[in-house]
Each structure stands twice: as structure tokens, then as C-alpha cells.
Amino acid sequence: MVSEALKGRSLLTWLDYTEEEIRYLLDLSRQVKAEKKQGEVHQRFLGKTIALLFEKRSTRTRCAFETAFGEEGGHPVFLSTQDIQMGAKESVEDTARILGRMFDAIQFRGFKQSTVETLAKYSGVPVFNGLTDNFHPTQVLADILTLEESFGSSRGKRICFVGDGRNNVARSLIVICAKLGVHFTVISPASLTPDAALLSTCAPLAAASGAKLTITTDTAELKGADAIYTDVWVSMGEEDKKEERRRLLTPYQVNQALMDKTGRGDSIFLHCLPAVKGEEVTADVLDGPQSRAWDEGENRKHTIKAIMLAAICGAALPGTKSA
Ligand code: CP
Ligand code: NVA
User: Fold this and answer.
1) Could you tell me the sign of the dihedral formed by the alpha carbons of 48, 77, 232, 238, in that order?
2) Which residues does 227 contact at the CB level (< 8 Å), separation at least 6?
3) How far is the CA of 167 from the centre of ligand 1 (A)?
4) Is the CB of residue 131 below 6 angstroms from any atom belonging to ligand 1?
5) CA of 59 to the centre of ligand 1 (A)
6) Cα–Cα distances in Å, from 279 out to 155, 166, 229, 230?
7) In terms of Cα–Cα distance, which of 240, 287, 245, 315 is closest to 8?
8) What is the DSSP track for 131-178?
């Protein structure tokens, strides 16, 4: 059973998950979102604790984990790596061993993918990747949920990511789209295309699911797209690249003229947020009628709750009755 397979699992990248498992998490996200909208109160994390480790800043991811865990009766503990011993006096392995003895799960946001992998290897509890330089898996589950809410389904739909195609969000979209049969186009300058190793890993996944992965520099590829997605030009940790990125990416700014290149009035705009208005997106697009970025931001909470429920509580979800 899918729910059994998800119990105790870490989420480091969607490469480790099957299409069926991802679809289960999308269904669970819809369920917990509906519960919330109906005002139901559940206590499925009662008596549980989660450590939330942050090397980088966050608004949505931190608040999603804290509120989703706390409102279900659990106790989230925020640990900035500015304050704890990890990375200073203590190794990641030793920190993982201790946290695993005190917490039921761990979330990590930071620089290296190897750190989140080490936490998962040595803690013995589920570890959730809340963003590394390489991947941002919890983000893209919310993105697919938002796409499905807009169009009824995601299979066969086409997302065009415009901007820094090498970044963690673009990389995670490649993986989840390849798994789910969502067509995915990266439109970026030649020097900012996704790395070849990830593309060759995803090619057979896309072939199996029916997803078409396209990498191009040409915004004419936007024609017919269901969704245009962008992210900041300068990701956290790359601040020294600001001028170079502005030069490379200015022609790829998502403004209304670029949105209109889909040739469709019903194509949607997505952004993981935070947005730098006037750089990767103009304010009129972000706040305009085609934007789903605010629903997408809210969906971070519902999808993160679903991911934690599946991993921490598993098949026998207690307290599913209205309180
Ligand atoms: N999208 C996202 O991860 O936002 P935060 O950086 O605010 O967590
Ligand atoms: N690519 C961005 C995503 C922020 C949610 C970054 O890593 O800063």
C-alpha cells in the first residue's frame, strides 16, 4: 500500500518517489486543505516533535512547517544554524544522531544537498528537504497542486519555466514533471540551462510518464503554455552574481507582453516567492488576474502537512474525525 511505503520516508528529492506516491501526497494535500477550509481541527501530531533547521532565511517554508505541525498538536522547534553547534563545534552526523533521539522528524533548509542526505542517514527519523542549493521538493508539490486546481489535472499540461534554469526550483520541477507526465520547458540563456546530468537522469522518467522536457533560449516556445513559472534571478547564496544575472535575464522578465506569448487568456502565472518585483516579474503580472502565486504560497502549508502526515503518521491516520 502506498501509505505504508511512505511511512518513515525522508523527502530529499522527488527522484526517490514513484508517480503513485506523489499522486497519493497530492490527494492527501487536497484532503487536508478541505479539512482546513471546513474548520475541522485535528490533533494528528499530538505528542510529536519536529526540529526545523535553517541555514538560510525563509518565510513560507518555515511558517508552513510550524503552523501545519503546531495546529495538529505537535511541537515544532526552530533551530537556526547560527545558534546551534552543527557546522561549528559539531559535525552534521553527530547532530543528526542527537536530533534523531529527541525528535520524530527533521526539516533542513540550507546550502548543500549532502547535509540533508547526512541528516537522513544518521538521524533514523524522516528528514524533509526544505530547500538546498540543488532541490526544493516541497515547493514543487505545491506548484503541481496549484496547477491541478487551475486546470483539473496536471498530466499533459505544459509548464514553461523562464529564468535561471539551473536553480533548485527549476531542477525540482524537472524531476516532478518527468515523474508525473507534465510537459516542462525551460526557457533561459544558454549559460543558465539545467545541468546535463540531471537531464539525463530525468530523460527515462519522462519517457515512461509521457512528459516532454524541452530546453531552449527562445521565448517563442511559450506559445500554448498552460503555466509560466519564474523564480528570482539570484538565489540565496549567489548574491555575488547579481549584476551578471541582471544582464543575462533582463530579456526573460515575465511581464504582460511575455505572458501574452502563450496566445491564451487562461494560462496562469506561478512563482515560488519571494518575488523581486521589477526584476524577474512585473508587479502587474504578479498581482494580476492570471497569477496563482498567492494560492501557490498557501498550498505550501497543505502540501507540507500532507508530506509530514504520510511520513510521521503513515497509514493509520488517527483523529480523522472532526474535533
Ligand atoms: N518559496 C519559499 O520557499 O519561500 P520561503 O523562502 O519564504 O520559505
Ligand atoms: N531559488 C530560490 C528559491 C527561494 C524559495 C533560492 O534558492 O533562493
Assistant:
1) negative
2) 147, 150, 157, 158, 159, 160, 267, 268, 269, 270
3) 14
4) yes
5) 5
6) 31, 18, 14, 11
7) 315
8) --SS--HHHHHHHHHHHHHHHS--TT-EEEEES-TTSHHHHHHHHHHH
Mutate to test the pocket of ligand 1, among 53, 54, 55, 59 (most ligand atoms within 8 A of CB): 59
C-alpha cell at 242: 547579481
Residue 62 C-alpha to ligand 2 middle, in angstroms?
A: 14
Of ligand 2's atoms, which has the minimum distance to the CA of residue 133? 7
Distance in angstroms (rounded) separating the CA atoms of residues 71 and 308: 13
d(CA 304, ligand 1 centre) in Å: 12
Our answer on whether the CB atom of 293 is closer than 6 Å to any ligand 2 atom is: no
**What does pTM read for this prediction?**
0.97
Q: Is 136 a catalytic residue?
A: yes
Residue 236, ligand 2, Cβ within 6 A? yes
Query: pLDDT per residue over 258-270, tens digit each?
Result: 999 999 999 999 9
The answer to whether residues 157 and 148 touch, using CB atoms and an 8 Å cutoff, is no
Residue type, 111: F
pLDDT in tens, 111-145: 999 999 999 999 999 999 999 999 999 999 999 99
Q: What does the block give as the cell for 318?
A: 488517527
